[in-house]
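Long-time lurker. I teach an intro course on protein structure, and each term I like to show students one example going from raw sequence to a predicted 3D structure in token notation. This year I'd like something fresh instead of my usual example. Would anyone be willing to generate the tokens for the chain below so I can use it in lecture? Attribution to the forum is fine with me.
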Amino acid sequence: MNAREEGRGIGVREKKVRSVAGGKGGKDAGLGIGGLIAGAFFVVLLLFFAGIFFSETGNATEEGRRGEQGKGNPQALSGVSHPLLRGMALGLHNGGEFDYRPAIDEIEEHGADAVEFVIPFFQCDVHSDTPGPRRGRTPPPDALANLIRYARRRNLDVFLLPIVLLEKAGKREWRGRMTPTDTDLWWKNYRRLLLDVARAGEKGGAMALSVGSELVWSERFRWRWEDLIRRVRGTFSGYLLYSANWDHYEPVTFWQSLDAIGISGYYELTRNRKAGIEELQRSWEKIRDEILAWQATVGKPLVFTEVGYPAVDGGAVYPWNYTMEAERDDAEQARGIEAFRRAWRKTPQLAAAFIYEWGVPGDTENHYSPRGRVAETFLRRWFAADYAERKERRKRWNREVEGKVTPAGGRKNKEKGWGKVAKRRDGEREEAE
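-- Reply from a regular --
Happy to contribute to a lecture. Here you go:
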């Protein structure tokens, strides 16, 4: 099964309003090409893209990790800036009994700083008011806490991203546009499941928790979100964010109650299915400039909770369309990821970025996974670059923050790291909630 939004059904999202390129795309190609042809091209593509990447990285040993003290850089703290966290998302779609440790090991061995656990919850349809876990598909809190501990033993920071999926969806229905029959009941149930995740995160020592993901329909309810965030802070002593859809981050009404801005970055970069890295990079740079202009008015660090491309023809055209059936195209996936890296490499406002998604060993249906594809070489090199320096800077950051932050409830923040620190936009002082 495809893990991007497994359980959502065949519905397609409504037309996006922030596409960088106009025009109409052609029809998707047919089903996948033969394994022998794919294998032959893989080696050629690997050598070609590796050459481009290696020549690029030689002059960029500090890509995106240079935080600067003061105004315009919310990451800076006491003279020590936290480097960009480079991470992988890992969907926990197989419940609590499944062994995710091999996947976590692989992520760490590739040089990642962090892993983001995507935790699925479910509701029947867009009108349901009972979101909740499903046995065999949602890890129970104790299992989640154990996974967090394991990842931390592997020297990975842990982000938690709970999402609500639809078990039944009409052709034009999407989980971001729900209309619950009883809105109060929906919030009551959602609060319960989120607090379960918060307790597991606190128990396991997670660094950060997203209080929601792409819940566009709910983002106008500022008082509901602020109440929920206060409750979560009473349980979880880590860093809080919200994952907004790529075309709907500005209307979110409660950014000031959070520690960071989260965006799921499935931007439509082009209508040209054969676009090269440079063309895709230019599209990402336009997107970057637009986001940063807005981010400066909010004054919060930026986190890409998801950036991913399916390895199919048209993957960079419609990266959000996980249902797309088209010919396999590993090169297009690699070009999309490399374009993102290049466009954001010297952006201190970016605190963390998670590539969606690594997946579990043996999962051959996850078109987003870079495992065994050209993009894996890109990621390995990006993650491994100046790894020792990044590790030391993370240690220095933690030492600087330790003992200076007292989270809600009076407990010392054991996670340290970014913890509860929220930098003000003007850089004049820090707040510990």
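Some talking points for your students: The longest strand covers residues 114-123. The chain has nine helices and ten strands.
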